[in-house]
Amino acid sequence: MPDGWQWDRTLFRGSAAYYDQGRLPYAPGFADRLADTLGLDRRGRLLDVGCGPGTVTLALAGHFAAVVGVDPDPDMLAEARRRARRIGVDNVRWVEARAEDLPADLGVFRAVLFAQSFHWTDRDRVAATVLDMLVPGGAFVHMSDHKEPPSRPVPLPHPAPPFERIRALVRDYLGEVRRAGQGVLVNGTPGREDLVLARAGFEGFQRLIVPAGEVVERGADDVVAWVFSRSDSAPHLFGDRRDEFEHDLRGVLRDASPDGVFAERLPDTEIMVWRKPSVV
């Protein structure tokens, strides 16, 4: 868990409605790549912790007999249920809970996945609990955008979103220290998952980079949705200045691209896998 920060229910309050439009997708083919790595055969169960609106949960659901998506935000789960109904996925159970509430009588799993969510948890405690929830040889999966930029980036056909100016505007409204729920992240979010998982007793580390690289067009509404989908600029943080902030944000976007069209390159997806020992 981030230093000096306490979780509270407002962390992503109001963000669920913006996720689908605002967040860039993971690399195409990530689900099949992970399925090949884990040897999935539509048997066993998956637990997705911090599942949000079900982005990864639903992409992987077809590779398991049953899936459980866990998230503490009821709006995220409501959006996940709507998505599941829309695309006809019926083997997922959605549970409102924190990672620290596990095992929560959820049973045992072939894989437990954290997609850009593990850093919000009491990691040592959660890792130890997850170890007990996995079948022997089961997988702890950590997924995120790959942070390293391409070595030879190709010019974009439209301006990129003005991320630095957006961050500066957020700071003007919310302060210099990154907000997170009712608290702040003085030192950012923690890394070195490898040390945490080793302490818990996991082994057999594998690292996968699933390439993306496609260029996608983004409109001003998409960029606004991205801003409001983030924990550090969630809608509730702006209080009664939310509309004022959005007005100023759209002004920044008009300055950067008068026709309101932007371009972004999809980041590669990084997947890290650790195994529970087959004999404990």
Automatic annotation (TrEMBL):
UniProt keyword annotation of Cytoplasm present: no
GO MF term list: methyltransferase activity
Keywords: Methyltransferase, Transferase
CDD domains named among the record's database cross-references: AdoMet_MTases
Pfam families given in the database record: Methyltransf_25
Top-level division of the source organism's lineage: Bacteria
Record EC number: 2.1.-.-
SUPFAM superfamilies assigned to the protein according to its UniProt record, in alphabetical order: S-adenosyl-L-methionine-dependent methyltransferases
InterPro entries according to UniProt: Diverse_substrate_MTase, Methyltransf_25, SAM-dependent_MTases_sf
Location of the Methyltransferase domain: 47-138
A Gene Ontology biological process term: methylation
Protein name from the UniProt record: Class I SAM-dependent methyltransferase
